[in-house]
Specification:
The chain is an alpha/beta fold. The protein contains 12 helices and 14 strands. It has 2 domains: about 240 residues, P-loop containing nucleotide triphosphate hydrolases (Rossmann fold); about 80 residues, 2-Layer Sandwich (Alpha-Beta Plaits), CATH 3.30.70. The strands form 3 sheets. A 6-stranded mixed sheet has the order 6-7-8-3-9-10, with helices on both faces. α4 packs across α5 and α5 runs parallel beside α6. It binds adenosine-5'-triphosphate.
Length: about 325
C-alpha cells in the first residue's frame, strides 16, 4: 500500500517557497489502478514524483507497504527505486541504444543481475509488450505507441511492484492510447502490479482506473471509486472534467431544460440494470409520459452504465420515481 500522511511540498525558487501540494492524506491499495486527474499546474506530477522520492516532501510521511521511506538515504533509495518503475509522456528512451539495450539498461545499472538473467528477462519483456521483432531497432525507427511499449518494458525490467505513469498516453493518438491502456490493464491484472497514473483526460481514468483523485491548485478535491466520481461528480473541477469528457455543455443542457415540460430527472443505471427494459413498463404502470433529453450508454472499466435525462409529464410521477428506484436506478431530480 502507498500511504501519504499529511504530505506536502513547496518548491524553493529564489528564496521563495512556491506551494505545489497542500497537506495530503492518501492510501493506494496494492494491485489497484489509481488515477490522478487535474488541470495543468494542479500538482499531479509533484504528487506522483513524491511516491518514488524523485521529489522530497517538505513535510509529512510517505509509507510504502508499512515502511516509512521518507528519510531514505542513497543506499536505501537505489533498492527502493527498483521497486517503483516509471513511464513518461515523452518516453525518455536512450536514443543511441537499441530497443533491447534500452530494456536491459536498468538491470545493468542495478549491477545485481547476471548476463543470462538480463538476456532472459529482456526476451520475456519483448514478448509481453509485442516488440520481439523490433529488438534490434533504434527508438527513432519506432512509432509513438511502440516507443511507449519500450518504456513500459524498461520500467518492468527490475520486477517493480509499483508502476508510475506520468501522462503516458498524452502524446499518442486515440487508437494508440487504447492499445497502451489495454497493455497497462493486462499488466495490472496478470502481474498484480499497483499502477498510479496521472492524466488530464477523464476518459483515460474511465477506461482503466479503479479509483481516482481529482486535483485542483495543489489539493485533492475529490477521491473515490471511478464509478462514483464519474457518475456523481461533486466538486466543480470534477464536474468540468466529466462533462468535458462526455462532450456535455452545461449551459446548452440548461437551455434544453428550459424548453422541456414537466419534471426533469437524471437516471443512472449501473451494471445489470443498464440493459433492463424498464422505462416502458414504468410508463405503462404509472401513466407517465416521458421524452429523452439526452442519453449515453458506455462502460467504466468493466462496468456498463447508462445515463438518461428525461422529462416526465402526466400520470403518477411519485410512483414512477419509486418504481425506478426500486429497480436499482439512481434518480436525481434536476427540476
Ligand atoms: N521544479 C519546480 N520548481 C518550481 N516550481 C515547480 C517545479 N515543479 C513544479 N512547480 C510548480 O508547482 C506547481 C504544480 O506543478 P506540477 O508540475 O506538479 O503540476 P501538474 O498538475 O503536473 O501540471 P502539468 O500537467 O502541467 O505537468 C505549479 O505551480 C508548478 O509551476
Amino acid at each position: 500500500m502507498i500511504e501519504f500522511d499529511q504530505v506536502h511540498k513547496a518548491y524553493e525558487v529564489e528564496g521563495r517557497a512556491i506551494p505545489a501540494l497542500q497537506p495530503t492524506d492518501l492510501a493506494i491499495q496494492n494491485g489497484e489502478i489509481f488515477g490522478i486527474v487535474g488541470h495543468s499546474g494542479a500538482g499531479k506530477s509533484t504528487l506522483i514524483r513524491l511516491i518514488n522520492l524523485l521529489e522530497r516532501p517538505s513535510g509529512g510521511r510517505i509509507v510504502i507497504d508499512g515502511e516509512d521511506v521518507t528519510g531514505y538515504g542513497s543506499d536505501n533509495l537505489r533498492a527502493f527505486r527498483r521497486q517503483v518503475g516509471m513511464i513518461f509522456q515523452h518516453f525518455n528512451l536512450l536514443w543511441s541504444k537499441t530497443v533491447e539495450d534500452n530494456i536491459a539498461f536498468p538491470m545493468k545499472l542495478a549491477g545485481i543481475y547476471s548476463k543470462e538473467e538480463i538476456r532472459a528477462r529482456v526476451k520475456e519483456l519483448l514478448e509481453r509488450v509485442g516488440l520481439t521483432h523490433h529488438a534490434r531497432k533504434y527508438p527513432s525507427q519506432l512509432s509513438g505507441g511502440q516507443k511507449q511499449r519500450v518504456g513500459i518494458a524498461r520500467a518492468l525490467a527490475c520486477r517493480p511492484t509499483i508502476l508510475l505513469c506520468d501522462e503516458a498516453t498524452s502524446a499518442l493518438d486515440p487508437q494508440t492510447t487504447q492499445s497502451v491502456l489495454r497493455l497497462l490493464a493486462d499488466i495490472n491484472r496478470e502481474l498484480g502490479l499497483t499502477i498510479v497514473l496521472i492524466t488530464h483526460e477523464m476518459d483515460v481514468v474511465r477506461r482503466v482506473c479503479d479509483r481516482v483523485a481529482v486535483m485542483d491548485a495543489g489539493e485533492v478535491v475529490e477521491m473515490g471509486p471511478v464509478t462514483d466520481v464519474f457518475l456523481h461528480p461533486k466538486h466543480p473541477t470534477t464536474r468540468d472534467f466529466v462533462f468535458e469528457s462526455e462532450h456535455i455543455d452545461e449551459r446548452e443542457m440548461h437551455e434544453d431544460f428550459e424548453n422541456a415540460e414537466g419534471r426533469i430527472l437524471r437516471l443512472t443505471f449501473r451494471g445489470e440494470s443498464t440493459y433492463k427494459p424498464l422505462l416502458g413498463s414504468v410508463a405503462r404502470e404509472t401513466g407517465v409520459d416521458f421524452s429523452i433529453l439526452s442519453g449515453r450508454i458506455d462502460r467504466i472499466k468493466d462496468t456498463p452504465y447508462g445515463q438518461l435525462t428525461l422529462s416526465l409529464v402526466g400520470g403518477d410521477l411519485k410512483a414512477a420515481q419509486s418504481a425506478l428506484e426500486a429497480a436499482d436506478v439512481h434518480v436525481e431530480v434536476l427540476r
